Amino acid sequence: MKGMEYFEVECAEPVGAETYTQIADDILSDLNLNQSIGRLHIYIDPETPPSFSQSV
């Protein structure tokens, strides 16, 4: 299979976009998924707080 043909991180802050690009690339490389995933688009909105769920 071909490598990733489309990989974009969309973020309002350029430094944040670069950071998330590096994080995603590291994760994909660590899990050997670079050849398995053809397209990846990540949207980061720093204005919206993340929501977390937890069960006990």
Descriptive report:
The protein is α+β, with helices and mostly antiparallel strands and 56 residues long. The chain has one helix at 14-30, and strands spanning 6-11, 39-44. Helix content is 30%, strand content 21%. Strand 1, helix 1 and strand 2 form a beta-alpha-beta unit.
How do the strands and helices of this protein lay out in sequence?
Elements: E1 6-11, H1 14-30, E2 39-44
Parallel strand pairs: 1-2
Largest sheet, strands/sense/barrel: 2 strands, parallel
Summarize model confidence as the mean pLDDT. 81
Net shape = globular
Report how far apart the termini are: 41 Å
Unreliable runs: none
Q: Please state roughly what percent of the residues sit in beta strands, choosing from under 5%, 5-15%, 15-25%, 25-35%, 35-45% or over 45%.
A: 15-25%
User: In total, how many beta strands?
Assistant: 2
Largest sheet, spatial ordering of strands: 1-2
Give keywords.
30% helix, 56 residues, alpha+beta
Short précis:
This protein is α+β, with helices and mostly antiparallel strands and 56 residues long.
